[in-house]
Amino acid sequence: xxxxxxxxxxxxxxxxxxxxxxxxxxxxxxxxxxxxxxxxxxxxxxxxxxxxxxxxxxxxxxxxxxxxxxxxxxxxxxxxxxxxxxxxxxxxxxxxxxxxxxxxxxxxxxxxxxxxxxxxxxxxxxxxxxxxxxxxxxxxxxxxxxxxxxxxxxxxxxxxxxxxxxxxxxxxxxxxxxxxxxxxxxxxxxxxxxxxxxxxxxxxxxxxxxxxxxxxxxxxxxxxxxxxxxxxxxxxxxxxxxxxxxxxxxxxxxxxxxxxxxxxxxxxxxxxxxxxxxxxxxxxxxxxxxxxxxxxxxxxxxxxxxxxxxxxxxxxxxxxxxxxxxxxxxxxxxxxxxxxxxxxxxxxxxxxxxxxxxxxxxxxxxxxxxxxxxxxxxxxxxxxxxxxxxxxxxxxx
Length: 397
Hints:
CATH topology of the largest domain: Aspartate Aminotransferase, domain 2
């Protein structure tokens, strides 16, 4: 059989490739400290599990509406309205089998072949993959180190906009950097969106994964609700990564089209899991608070150790479960300039497994600083301490 040419435009989520390497290293009898994958090794709250089990016993095991059960869509719209000062109803919500499907469906609805799409780099690699797979032109935009966190290079973004630019992808809070936009930054983004008549995919998978302050959304600014589609994920806040449930939230005419794609792609999302999601949104929040407290302790300890390592500097992100330290000086001290060589050496000598900046997009022109991403969502506190102390010894030897 001859494979379709489109497959050669399809990328992958490169963190899974690092997982395979770590698994092979562990199979050799070695201990691995898994900082590479943004999975969560914390149990889904019991009340969500119990509500899902009840739904199964109550017979919620058949097909359901292709855009999701009305109760979940209504509760989700209400929940988002509280945090975003928006005006959504259930007609603005289409439930998905995970957050990731929203990316491809959004592009299919709003992007024509040849249209240009601005996307973050470093950023989630599936953006670029889906843009190119569906015959769009992927145009990366970058970030720079600010005083407290990474900041979007907004002047560069405006220079990248052409007559063919149709879409901006905004991941806020951001993977892999843990960056988040200030109100002032969002105001500037909104100005660019209005000026150039852009549509926006607001990937807010980590919107509720925060330890301090409040998350801000582009949707909350004047005129943005009708220009944006929110990618919502149940995976992070409720530790439901393997349950595969998310949603697209946006203008009704766009959501109707995404729901039509649901019919063609998967018929509907898992029926009984949606009752567990309702419990997550409306029920006891003790389990959610416990998840955040566990992650906060991991972040604080990891940051404490990283900050003690000569040659590393790292922001303290108030959201997500990622650290994105600058390791330029540390790599120079080790005499290593190649990301892959550095990563493999660290794995072989310490067991610490992580992704580098290049797992989140090609280096942009003029980029000289070196970064790695450490995900602390899938590794317990004792192993964070043990692994990063070995990493410290490796870097300072």
